[in-house]
């Protein structure tokens, strides 16, 4: 079954009153958050023209850890997020709502890599 057929089947079931189990809903939420963070880190890093290795050095991490964050393979702790924000010369803003997640790094000033 193709992804588009699967998606429409899921949407159809939800429209008919089907309710996904709470653990599935929570897993989807966690995946959305992880992906939003990954995208924000990647976008800010590339905006600064940094490689993963350079960002890792700035944040006191390994390149593999940066890769896992950008690949949505891990959700970092708050102290690690603070180190990332500092290394990216930005403030980290996270907005969490029931159906949406927004993760944005806001530059502090001039973008000097």
TrEMBL record:
UniProt-listed CDD domains: HTH_XRE
Residue ranges annotated for the HTH cro/C1-type domain, each copy included: 41-95
Q: Is DNA-binding among this UniProt entry's keywords?
A: yes
Record flagged with keyword Acyltransferase: no
Its domain of life reads: Bacteria
* InterPro entries documented for this protein: Cro/C1-type_HTH (IPR001387), Lambda_DNA-bd_dom_sf (IPR010982), TransReg_Diox_bact_type (IPR050807)
Q: Which UniProt keywords apply?
A: DNA-binding
Q: What is this protein called?
A: Helix-turn-helix domain-containing protein
Q: What is the lineage of its organism?
A: Bacteria, Bacillati, Actinomycetota, Actinomycetes, Kitasatosporales
């Amino acid at each position: 079954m193709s992804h588009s057929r699967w998606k429409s089947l899921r949407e159809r079931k939800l429209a008919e009153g089907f309710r996904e189990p709470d653990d599935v809903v929570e897993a989807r939420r966690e995946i959305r958050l992880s992906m939003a963070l990954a995208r924000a880190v990647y976008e800010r890093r590339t905006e600064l023209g940094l490689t993963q290795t350079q960002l890792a050095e700035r944040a006191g991490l390994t390149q593999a850890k940066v890769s896992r964050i950008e690949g949505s393979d891990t959700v970092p702790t708050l102290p690690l997020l603070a180190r990332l924000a500092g290394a990216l010369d930005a403030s980290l803003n996270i907005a969490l709502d029931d159906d949406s997640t927004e993760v944005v790094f806001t530059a502090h000033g001039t973008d000097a890599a």
